[in-house]
Amino acid sequence: MSVHNLVLIGFMGTGKSSVGRLCARQLGYRFRDSDVEIERRTGCSIAQFFADHGEAAFRQIECAVIAELARGSGQVIATGGGAVLLEENVHALRATGFVVLLTATPEVIWQRVGRSHKRPLLAGTPDPLTRIRELLATREPCYARAADLQVDTCGLTREAVVERVLAAYREHRK
Ligand code: S3P
Asked: What is the distance between the alpha carbons of residues 133 and 114, in angstroms, rounded to a whole number?
């Protein structure tokens, strides 16, 4: 199957949604955010869903949503930070998409996400920075395996990240 989506993966706070929205505008693609689709489908916020049903139930819905998004075309898809933990998701996304990993250091991620209550995996942790480091360490191999390209977002403006992502995507599509 040929590539007809641009997919952004990476940890929370790496800019997947904001970069994705700008990329979609420039490409004339539809922007899809897997977390937003999950909220639409469940009728509640991600944080509330985690609190009521737990992470395993969330991952099941995330998997169904990603499979559905990957079937579409002409889209920029921003995924939740844990989407690549399931091989099935990676397979579906890579089958139809060029996959770009956005990265940042734990410190920069911490500055960006702060004490956001929207991030259930960080909420309620006494030491979020350590939690970010731990999660990143376990996820890094999954992120690297899933990506066609990596862009380090530290020290770059959102526009500069968009430029790099789009240049690589256009080159890939030639
Ligand atoms: C998660 C990241 C979140 C959201 C959920 C789980 C994760 O998305 O999907 O809270 O496992 O890293 P963002 O990466 O958009 O914050």
From this structure: 14
Q: CA 8 from chain center: how many Å?
A: 5
Rounded distance, CA 56 to CA 32, Å? 22
Give the number of the atom of ligand 1 that is nearest the alpha carbon of residue 62: 9
Fold of 5-173: Rossmann fold (3.40.50)
Which residues sit with their C-beta closer than 6 Å to ligand 1? 12, 16, 35, 46, 80-82, 119-121
Q: Note whether 66 and 35 are within 8 A (CB).
A: no
Mutation pick for ligand 1 pocket among 12, 89, 110 (CB with most ligand atoms within 8 Å): 12
Beta strands across the sheet bearing 5-10: 30-33, 75-78, 5-10, 97-103, 149-152
Residue closest via CA to ligand 1's atom 5 equals 80
Give tens-digit pLDDT for 1-17.
577 999 999 999 999 99
- Residue 43 CA to ligand 1 centre (angstroms): 17
Longest dimension (CA), the chain: 48
Tens-place pLDDT, residues 13-22: 999 999 999 9
